Fold this protein.
Amino acid sequence: MKQNIDELYIDNEDRIVVIISDFHMGEGFLAHRRVYSRSENFFHDDAFYGFIKYLKRLQAEKNKPVTLIINGDFLDFIRIRTVPGDREHKHFLRYLKRIGHDLQEKDVTIDATEKNFGLNAYELKSVWKLQHIANGHPRVFEALAEFVVSGNRLIIVKGNHDLEFYWPAVQKEFRKILARMLPSVNGAYKRAVERMEFIESNVEFVQKAVIIDRTIYIEHGHQYQPITRVEGPPQQNGELSLPPGSILNRYLINAIETIIPFINNIRPVTEVFHALGFKQKFQALRILLSHLPRAGKIMYRRYRKDGLVLLLELLPYMLTFLYFVFGFALPMIWKHYEQLYIAVLGGTGEFLMHNWFLHLLLIFLGFETAKWGLRFAGRTHYFDLNQALRNAREKVAGGTRGQKNHFLVLSHTHKPEVCRLGENWWYVNTGTWIPILDRKEILMHEKMTMSFVQFEKNQRGQWDFELMQWNDAKGRGDKLILLES
């Protein structure tokens, strides 16, 4: 069993290939309270079980096994703010010792920061987070065990929300969880060693990309967006290197979601500040004032350039939020500001204050100039599809002879898409299985969840695909309705 495969090349693949992504599973269902965690985003556990049954039917009908690729952000380790209680912690430490781990100080202690923001991304603490997620989503793990034991293959690609799949101990624990499910599925695997060997041979973890027949290039996609890109070594001093976006999620967005769930799923971003400003403005302001300094300090220490870019992109929205919060006091603030401005700038200040629209226009142009300057300098937080295509072309160079089309499959954006990229390339985005609240496409909102991509070889032996949506009520995959852009 090879650990930490960077790129997995699969040649002469004769299976059906199905790709899903972005479940963002967190704490899930809290059985002792009979409610879901307030920070949970994934509620389709039973639907996913039905989806796996569909894949098994597909396997039987086509007489071909299925390769299921979960293309990143399957689990959301960053979203776990809960820490184990004293009794649970002692039990977990005994478990780690029993399976052969030598514990260090960082593995044993839970500091004040972790109690507020969740366990740090150390290897063994990430194992506890994995167990916690599995306890909240047992149906999903049971479904995956049934899928694998039916003779199929499972490949998990790492995303920016489940970077913890980098750790060998996390990969091993994931396999153990599936192995424990096997006795209820197939009585043939009675010994724990047999169950583990079977899972190890059919469940793989990939750090970056899967390339099938040098025709289909599959990657999560977070490396093509600076705010989610991991630069440098994947871990330092025994802790994972989190990208800027993960730092913001851990130290700020998780706290905001305690007052407005799903805020990380609202599109466009301007609607986030609209929701904060109108619905929970004073609570949101309290969280911003208490959490933003810590997030800013960590960003400044690790990602100064990206932090500056992010600040310039978000500052107009933050000012809009402050306007919603303090709009009632704006005349008094403006009056004080006017006197100060004139005192500092003299006649120029008086001219600008009396022509306030020109003043606001200059501020707006200043922001736009800075943003465009950063864009031309290559420092932007937009998703770079062109870079992804260049990388995919390089990886599939000299691909399968006679294959007319090549395919770039990404995830990450949560927006299912299909489009042509040049003469013989298709771009496909797998979308997500979590709610996306998009005011611009509110009528299509429900159509943008539970999406998947299905690849099969046609009669000429060439790969082709369909972007589909899981219809749980009818137990089948339907063609996903997309509008031209």
Confidence is low (pLDDT under 50) at residues 442-447. The chain has two domains: 5-82+118-225+383-479, 235-376.
